[in-house]
Amino acid sequence: MAARHMSGAALVLAGFALVGTGLVAATYGLTRERIAQVERENLLRTLGALVPPEWYDNDLAGDTLQVRDRALLGTDEPVTVYRARRGGAPVAVVLTPVAPDGYGGPIRLMVAIRVDGTLAGVRVLAHKETPGLGDRIEVEKSDWIHAFRGRSLRDPDPAHWKVRKDGGVFDQFTGATITPRAVVKAVRKALEYYEAHRNELFAAQPEESRDG
């Protein structure tokens, strides 16, 4: 009798365990879907801030390819390129390079470049810079990041694509020079990558992977 009671209790506990596991799995699945949805919404919002919808008529978030170039894009990982077109003609690309030498670690960027090689804008996607100092690279914290808009590899000239402390034209932050220096360098290298691969970037098929 006692054995049957213990067996029944074990079955009940096993049932609760299965139900609990199922609930955890379902919750994890829903959470993962929600996170993915939020990330996509953030992506579209950032893309829209850099490349206004009226500039293009293609699926900007879907017309992508993966490229690799550690020297110019700052990472060994594939870098996503978003391509804007209007009537089939190239309008702009958005690169997602990394500034590997931030003060707190790598800084993930989104760099929008018009077809003529001028910058449409830059945004910071992720970083671990010091709050109150290096985090002024965020558009929500200061307007510093807007200084790149309209710039190109020739404006300023190569010798002045630096922060002012290094003889360049871009401001640094009081008490935090390493962070803006890393971002300026990464943006310049993204422009160099675009200039070297402009034709291939627009000619490649969506979702194609290409090494630099």
Report what the structure shows.
The chain has 2 domains: 1-50; 55-202. The N and C termini lie far apart (74 Å). The protein has 3 helices and 7 strands; from the N terminus they run αβαβββββαβ. It has 212 residues and is α+β, with helices and mostly antiparallel strands. The model is unreliable at 1-6 (pLDDT under 50). The protein has helices at 2-50, 70-73, 178-203; strands at residues 64-68, 79-86, 89-95, 98-99, 107-114, 119-126, 209-211.
Descriptors for this entry?
single chain, alpha+beta, 37% helix, membrane, cell inner membrane, Ion-translocating oxidoreductase complex subunit G, transmembrane
Ends distance: 74 Å
What profile does the largest beta sheet have?
7 strands, mixed
Shape: globular
Order of helices and strands: HEHEEEEEHE
Rg result? 23 Å
* Unreliable segments of 5+ consecutive residues: 1-6
How big a fraction of the residues is strand? 15-25%
Helical segment count: 3
The tally of structural domains comes to: 2
As a percent range, the share of helical residues equals 25-40%
Structural class category:
alpha+beta
Domain FMN-binding: 102-194
Subunit structure: The complex is composed of six subunits: RnfA, RnfB, RnfC, RnfD, RnfE and RnfG.
Membrane topology: Single-pass membrane protein
GO molecular function: electron transfer activity; FMN binding
Question: In a few lines, what is going on in this structure?
Answer:
Part of a membrane-bound complex that couples electron transfer with translocation of ions across the membrane. The chain is an alpha+beta fold and 212 residues long. The chain is 37% helix and 19% strand.
